[in-house]
Amino acid sequence: MRLPCSAAAAAALALACHAQKTDTPPTAYDEVITLEEFYVGAAAPDSYIVSESMGGTRTGAKILETPSMVQVITSEFMEDFQTLDDYNDLPMIASYTPEGDDGRGGAPGRLRGFSPIKMRDGFPRTVLPTLANTKQAEAIMGPQSALYGQASPGGIINYVSKRPSATTRRYLTLAAGSNDYRRAELEL
Question: How much is the pTM?
Fold first, then answer.
């Protein structure tokens, strides 16, 4: 058997290196460390994803089972991105285009090319949505007249109110910005 010179030299060097023995004493880095048992899960909870919605059927059905396309913006998303009103959270909805001012402090915009009906808990809204009073915003795409009466062909935007909680949650939020922007929010 004929080996090239470089292959034979590499094989001889590997045998020589393997045969060497070190007489150095073990250091602190050579000690074996035993860790406590721990668990690694494959699925982490995602607070931005909602599986059920009242908007598509008015029954709290799973979003996958609704006949309409429903997109939900959760309160966790609104808090993390500080979307404080219609101008900030509605552009996060697919097929929504903001346009000017509706005169009531909200963004009128268009959903699938039409002016959407805005509701609070499935009824025509009277209170402007904020982080303090909104659990989630649901966009129900397409005509919904069978469920909501007279409605836009583009769809409906439904704001779901926060409900009382069994656990106490208290927080104070203060914000300031340009153009004399000031905001204070207290939740007890």
Answer: 0.64
Give the amino acid at 81. F
Q: What is the pLDDT of residues 132-170, one digit of tens each?
A: 788 888 888 887 766 777 778 888 888 888 888 888 878
Residues across the chain: 188
Element (H or E) spanning 44, and its range? none
183 and 80 Cβ atoms separated by less than 8 Å: no
> Per DSSP, what are the bridge partners of residue 183?
175
CB burial string 4-38: b at 16+ within 10 A, e below:
eeeeeeeeeeeeeeeeeeeeeeeeeeeeeeeeeee
Q: What are the DSSP E strand ranges found in the chain?
A: 52-53, 61-62, 70-74, 96-97, 110-111, 117-120, 123-124, 134-141, 155-161, 171-177, 181-187
Per DSSP, 152 falls in state: -
In contact, 175 and 182? CB cutoff 8 Å: yes
